[in-house]
Amino acid sequence: MPSTHNHPAGSSSPLASIGRSIWTRRDQFHSVEANPESSAREFELQSFQKHVTDLFHDLSAVGADEFLSIAWIQKLLDVYVSCLEEFRGIFLKNKEQVSKSPMDHWTDEYLDRSLKALDICNAARDGIEKIRMWHKHLEIVLCALDSRQRAYCEAQFRRARKALMDLALEMLDGRDSGSAFSHRNWSFGRHNARKDQNHRRRHTSSGHSRSHSWSISASWSASKQLQSIANNLVAPRGNENAATNGLAGSVFTMSSVLMFVLSALVAAIPCQDRGLNTHISIPPQFSWGIPLMSLHERIMEESKKRERQSSNGLLKEIYQVERCTRHMTDLVDLVQFPLTEEQKTELEQELQELASICEKFKNGLDPLERQIREVFHRMKNCRTEGLELLSRASSLE
């Protein structure tokens, strides 16, 4: 399924370079087939591990100016989609093994995590809707203080002050886990809900918890959902990996990628009860663990900064909104008429920054939401394929 989002003009899509790397590995694969000592499966699994390592290395190489920005989150989702598609290809080539013991246990746990992940996608999409509402208030401020056709007057500042107060109230409400957003039914794919429920009836396990992907209650918690996904996320032992011909290791890799991507989304975007206390630990034998843990530590360090501890989200643009609106509110409250040249200069500087933030929201929020929607559908489709494999295997027993 092709990606539906757009990238800024003048930059190349991360998926384009990802696609090139996949073709390169396919060329390498043909050369391995000629070597009788090499296993095609082993090479493919090693190639998957290297692919994940390379992608997360690139993600971790970004500087502070880009880290946790809308553009960086878009790259993170591109990376997830690329990893998922390669992982899916491995599973489809090993259909019989993934549905038989002992591999079926690993498959089942991954499918359970991917089901819970759908709620996080919905929560992130809802968070984007909140940011859109903040964006509207920022545009009112910009419109109110537009001085291109007239000199500043008190009426303009009263309108700007009201918009800033409304924005402050909404951002404060966004930190409340019981906000009105949590009472809304969420779904990227309601029309397929019954089909997915039928699959769950055919194949369930004691480890599966009820999904709230189509109706999330006011008590739902992003933090608890992440913790539920992280539970029992442990690397396979050597004998377990050997018994599954290395497939269990690939499941652990994809589960860890899923866990990190979800935790980064919850950290960056306003979500209901978005605690950041989920523990992530990667054994040293996985090369991708180094860049992934480096990114996780950077997110934790960002969350501990004094100015970010009460933030609605660690998204770079949210911090810019919070900082700029504080300055703008102080300026609007203290201004006296007529404005001095110094006050005009300061006001125009703040308005320029506000305009820059609005431009980022205008250009970035819609593509980001489309990406999250695409991730949701890819997760759900991959899960449906996995459930069908397990169901078919159970019917043959």
TrEMBL record:
Cellular location(s): Membrane
Family designation: Belongs to the ROH1 family.
Annotated signal peptide: none
Keyword Ribosomal protein among UniProt keywords: no
Domain of life the protein comes from: Eukaryota
Annotated keywords: Membrane, Transmembrane, Transmembrane helix
Keyword S-adenosyl-L-methionine: no
Start and end residues of each stretch annotated as Disordered: 191-212
Biased composition (Basic residues): 191-211
Main localization of the protein described in the UniProt heading: membrane
Organism (species): Rubus argutus (Southern blackberry)
Full protein name: Uncharacterized protein
One of the record's GO cellular component terms: membrane
Protein topology in the membrane: Single-pass membrane protein
